[in-house]
Each structure stands twice: as structure tokens, then as C-alpha cells.
Amino acid sequence: MISKVLNDISGVGIYPVATLIIFFSIFGFMLVKVLMRKKSEDAVMAQLPLEDGVTPTQEVKHG
What we know:
By secondary structure, the chain is mostly helical. The chain has one domain (2-48). It is 60% helix and 0% strand. The longest helix is centred in the middle third of the chain and has 22 residues, at 14-35. The mean pLDDT is 81.
């Protein structure tokens, strides 16, 4: 039943390819963004869950 419905839809084969391209594009972008980040920013963010609050000397930049 489902295969019959999918066979009747023209151009349905492009959706899996488009989805795969979108997924790997976003994954690749985020991987590059993480790898290019400064190590000092990582150290500040790693300490955040352990602190009661952010001190005025440590500014956290989002984005």
C-alpha cells in the first residue's frame, strides 16, 4: 500500500538525497565551528556548571 502511494508521487526520490545533504551540511558547519573555537573559551565554558555565578572578570560570549 505505502509503496504504491510512493510510486505514484513524481519526484519523491529527491527527498532522501536533499535531507542527507542538509544534514551533512549542518553537521559539517558545526564541526568546523567547534574545531575553530579558541581553547580559552572552552575553559571558561567548562567551568560554568561548577560556579555559583559568573564573575565580572569572566565574560561569556554567546553566539
